[in-house]
Specification:
Largest sheet of chain B: 8 strands, mixed
Number of helices of chain A: 8
CATH topology of chain B: TIM Barrel
Number of helices of chain B: 10
CATH architecture of chain B: Alpha-Beta Barrel
Number of domains of chain B: 1
Shape of chain A: globular
Strand order of the largest sheet of chain A: 1-2-4-3-5-6-7-8
Low-confidence stretches of chain A: none
CATH superfamily of chain A: Alpha/Beta hydrolase fold, catalytic domain
Largest interface: A-B, 9 and 8 residues
Oligomer: heterodimer
Number of domains of chain A: 1
CATH architecture of chain A: 3-Layer(aba) Sandwich
Strand content of chain A: 15-25%
Distance between the termini of chain B: 34 Å
Structural class of chain B: alpha/beta
CATH topology of chain A: Rossmann fold
Helix content of chain A: 25-40%
Helix content of chain B: 40-55%
Low-confidence stretches of chain B: 245-266, 275-323
Order of helices and strands of chain B: EHHEHEHEHHEEEHEHEEHH
Structural class of chain A: alpha/beta
Shape of chain B: globular
Distance between the termini of chain A: 29 Å
Largest sheet of chain A: 8 strands, mixed
Radius of gyration of chain A: 17 Å
CATH class of chain B: Alpha Beta
Mean pLDDT of chain B: 79
Strand order of the largest sheet of chain B: 1-2-3-4-7-8-10-9
Number of strands of chain A: 8
């Protein structure tokens, strides 16, 4: 069910589906794509709450701005408003960055954290690029960086209605707005990752070339109780490219040791 | 009619390589630039600008970055030289890409300095910059227009404030004290030019009494200029506006790739007569009003192009033979 919620004096488009343990899913730069199979599969096991970030879908930007800090506070407010407790927080790509920003502020509502190919942190030196420049890669290159099988990522933009195209463009604009410079990371976030005092799973597409598994290994070292698992045959979007494996691995982690 | 001579001071020796690789800019490695040839070219281009003054042309300079098409990387740097080598020509900066500049007050300082140096000959273009300027500047494209307008407002305030210092705490720019020295010779500011393609830009420019220009698109110019004229009538009661054209290339740059005499680009301008009510009497006294051109664009363009090219070429040849 898709609905508009009012949170922190802004409105948020949210899809909610399934029953059971609440799972807040924060989407990546390419958007939510609830029509892909990942959502149905995930909603068979959990009560999935998945907002479109401000700037994507029908969620307006907060005060016309694109500031990741604002998203962290927005979702903490949302979690409090929904009374989330013992919930699972999942963030993919850009949403992983937001999820980490949430958890360094407060882990009160969430018992488990799953980061799927997250952006948001810089580990390398000033001459190295941790995160591939998604805004500069030509389309064919971009698909090779983001999909294990690039053909699966092909979209015939000419066949899409204008409304859908406008939505895609709006999401791309928002993505740039939030993370242009510093590029898709908060230079101060790494310093505070030790505050994440919940079991954390880093779920990584083995063939992700936007943020590689080596970058995931740096994340694992920075978060106290984290483990890194690779999904074979997936690039930057494991939940889209290998949805069954994605949900199985996520559930094995989330449902363990309860 | 005013005719503006414009050269991007191109490094054309790299164009064959660039075209083969699919880009003349941003990703074309600068090993394709020979600084020795560049030394000769830059000096030749500056000589050409100086000659414009002698034949009665006005001068336009722009800037781009990371490109073989334009080696003017700083409008103020080029105009500083040209201001000293010319006496009559209006000096049009078109312009400074202010949404890509980290320090708008520095822009105001440089523009004021140029205006004083040139004796009030500066025409000050505050431009948004082409999309391919985003990468070298690494400025956020998603809020570029908000940054543009904040920089625009700050620059004009810095240039026109005489009882400062004032402070500025905006969305993008923060200053404790703004109080620029020198201040411009033309009061309250040198004439401001904008560039754009949209009806909205036409309206915004008209409301501020700016000149508006467009590039590469006659089809965009029509609606934008019409919006400009209409808004200017509503806003300031201005009955007449001027249009002028600028010849688009340096006479010395080969045009073979574009074929025949087709111009690479054709900037077209539309602006207020220098009687805008927003301008003080001091300003009117120090600037010359633009004559109104009612000629067809094509006729004006053709005359301007052939006239400039021929004049520049012949005088350059004369100079070479003398030296």
């Amino acid at each position: 069910m898709i609905k508009m919620l009012s949170v922190a004096a802004t409105s948020l488009e949210v899809v909610e589906q399934g029953q059971g343990r609440p799972l807040l899913f924060l989407h990546g730069g390419e958007g939510l794509a609830p029509e892909r199979p990942w959502l149905d599969l995930l909603a068979r096991r959990y009560r999935v709450i998945a907002p479109w970030h401000p700037g994507w879908g029908n969620s307006p930007l907060i005060d016309g701005l694109g500031v990741v800090d604002d998203l962290a506070y927005l979702y903490l407010d949302l979690a409090a408003e929904l009374g989330l407790d013992d919930a699972v927080l999942v963030g993919a790509c850009f949403g992983g960055w937001v999820a980490a920003e949430i958890m360094v502020r407060s882990t009160a509502c969430f018992a488990r954290l799953v980061l799927v190919d997250p952006l948001g942190v810089k580990f390398g030196g000033r001459d190295e690029r941790d995160i591939s420049d998604m805004h500069a890669l030509p389309r064919a290159q971009y698909l090779k960086h983001t999909w294990a099988d690039p053909a699966k990522g092909e979209v015939d933009f000419t066949a899409l209605p204008d409304s859908e195209l406008a939505g895609i463009v709006r999401g791309r604009e928002a993505f740039a707005l939030y993370g242009w410079k510093p590029y898709m990371h908060n230079p101060r976030l790494k310093r505070w990752l030790h505050r994440i005092d919940r079991p954390t799973l880093l779920l990584w597409g083995a063939e992700d070339r936007i943020v590689t598994p080596a970058y995931g290994a740096s994340w694992r070292q920075a978060i106290p109780n984290a483990r890194l698992e690779l999904i074979v045959g997936a690039g930057h979007f494991p939940h889209w490219e290998q949805p069954e494996a994605f949900v199985d691995r996520l559930a094995a982690f989330v449902d363990s040791n309860r | 009619m005013r005719v503006w001579y414009f050269s991007e001071m191109a490094y054309h020796p790299a164009w064959e390589e660039g075209l083969q690789r699919g880009s003349l800019r941003v990703v074309l490695p600068n090993r394709n630039y020979d600084p020795q040839i560049g030394h000769q070219l830059l000096n030749r281009y500056l000589d050409e600008f100086a000659l414009c003054d002698e034949v009665g042309l006005d001068i336009m300079v722009n800037e781009h970055h990371s490109t073989s098409t334009c080696l003017t990387i700083s409008v103020p740097m080029a105009l500083a030289i040209i201001a000293r080598e010319t006496k009559r020509a209006r000096l049009l900066s078109l312009g400074t890409p202010i949404a890509n500049r980290p320090d708008p007050v520095r822009v105001a300082e440089e523009m004021a300095w140029l205006d004083v140096l040139s004796g009030g000959r500066l025409e000050m273009g505050l431009v948004k910059g082409a999309p391919y300027e985003i990468a070298p500047a690494n400025s956020n494209p998603a809020n570029l227009m908000r940054r543009y307008w904040e920089a625009h407002d700050l620059i004009l305030k810095a240039l026109s404030t005489t009882d400062g210092p004032f402070s500025w705490e905006g969305e993008f720019f923060h200053y404790r004290t703004v109080n620029i020295w020198p201040r411009p010779l033309q009061q309250p500011t040198p004439p401001v030019w904008m560039t754009g393609l949209s009806v909205e830009t036409g309206r915004m420019a008209a409301e501020r009494g700016h000149v508006v220009g467009t590039l590469l698109s006659l089809s965009a110019a029509g609606p934008m200029f019409e919006a400009y004229r209409q808004r200017a009538r509503e806003w300031a009661g201005l009955p007449v506006l001027t249009a002028s054209l600028m010849p688009p290339w340096s006479a010395s740059v080969p045009r073979a790739r574009r074929g025949g005499g087709v111009p690479i680009s054709l900037p077209i301008m539309c602006g207020p007569p220098r009687l805008s009510p927003s301008r003080s009497p001091t300003h009117l006294a120090t600037t010359r009003s633009l004559p109104i051109s009612l000629c067809s664009r094509r006729a004006v363009g053709a005359a301007a192009l052939s006239g400039t090219a021929t004049a520049i070429r012949s005088i350059r040849l004369q100079r070479q033979s003398i030296s």
